[in-house]
Specification:
The complex is a heterodimer of chains A (267) and B (245). Chain A has ten helices and ten strands. Chain A is an alpha/beta fold. In chain A, the strands form two sheets. Chain A has a six-stranded mixed beta sheet with strand order 6-7-8-3-9-10, sandwiched between helices. A four-stranded antiparallel beta sheet of chain A has the order 2-1-4-5, covered by helices on one side. In chain A, a hairpin with a 2-residue loop joins β1 and β2. Chain A starts with 17 loop residues before the first strand and ends in a 5-residue tail after the last helix. Classes of the chains: A alpha/beta (267), B mainly alpha (245).
Chain lengths: 267, 245
Amino acid sequence: MDTQTMTKPAAENGTKSAKMSARGVKVFYGEKRALHGIDVDIYENEVLALIGPSGCGKSTFLRTLNRMNDTIDICRVEGLITLDGADIYDPKLDVVQLRARVGMVFQKPNPFPKSIYENIIYGPKLHGLATKKDEFDAIVEQSLKRAGLWNEVKDRLMEPGTGLSGGQQQRLCIARAVAVSPEVILMDEPCSALDPIATAHIEELIDELRENFTIVIVTHNMQQAARVSQRTAFFHLGDLVEVGNTEEIFTNPRDERTQGYITGRYG
Amino acid sequence: MAAEHTVKAFEQELRRLSNLISQMGGVAEAQVEAAVQAVARRDVDLAGRVLQADSQLDEYERQIEQEAVRMLALRQPMGVDLREVLAALKISADLERTGDYAANSAKRSIALAQLPAVRPASAIPRMGRLVQEMLKDVLDAYVDRDVEKAVAAWHRDEELDDLYTSLFREVLTYMMEDPRNITPCTHLLFIAKNLERAGDHATNIAETVHFLVVGQPLTGARPKGDKSSFAVVAPEPAADLPAGP
């Protein structure tokens, strides 16, 4: 890991505090370079949307933020990524602890084949966040409330999570991510398998979660990026082309490639 | 404009919207020109034709609004496309209002034609020409996406305001000279005001073109030259000042 000075990327200014920062992040799958040096700050209590065509590296970048790429043998990450200023690729760092602080929600809802209750307490149990039954009960209630699911499932907490509708399952996964009190939540196309109503629930939820968490979301749906995020980053062929206020990106992007992509002129 | 849209129909719709604006602009230009002619030549028939043709502009505005709303709802345009649709909406409103000013001037020219001619009327064609040039320039700037041309036209509004201010003073003097001038001079004053307002709408269009192309509002206050709001003309002709040495 190279040590680099933490200078702000040229395109960014302002005085907001960065929860996470990436500097010169390169990712290789074997010989192939998937990311060519990404510089971006992720601000606290903000939603950052990552957009771009398939294969542009946005999901790869998302996965570097909680070291999900570690699970892929041929994957190599260079550059510096920090969480509250500390290098998350520090060899001394406990990856399990990191993933408790930087949680993740995936494209397809993937509840464990266990009860709703078990789904929620799995993480807190693993991380030793609670020991007594009433502590776990409180975590379950709070997490489900935060995920906007409590009222729908409070009377059937012992039923299997897989029995819920797709949208409910995704909110259960968000509740599960929230249960370990992470600081950052990564979402990889969390609504792509959901209908418009379930999507609206998740989007509303993302907006509420922003109060307590920092969120990075990958989405193919540009309207969704426009609706849920405060800042948007456009990736193209492994480069971060442009990052800025969402309003600016969708009304007056600086780069020709961003313009082409958001207006549907992308070859 | 950048490369073509992947969705061809969207590309065609944007082009159609832009064409509608160009056509509407052509009609608005012609209306202003005809209205000024009607005043200058005391041509009642021409004035009647201007009044009749005004509904065309209303129809264009309705059509453009309909297209724009449909595109906003169905295409959810972004970036330059969004600005394109917003610009069409704004420009059509400016052109419609320009047409109203032309029609009102034509209406007043009919009244003027029934009254003895007054001298300040000769300033109207000059104002008219300037408005037409501004309108033509901003519409060309729209078609060519030419920001410099738009900004140049924007600055010419000052000239128009100066013409209006001096006409205003002249007209007041005439009214004081002879009360029989009051009726024609009042109509003239309103016609001049119509042209001055039409110029303001041309500057609006220049601002919209700037926003459309650059994505940022045209900043920096335009010099306001219309000083007629503060003008006072003394009822007695000012005493002749001794000639300078």
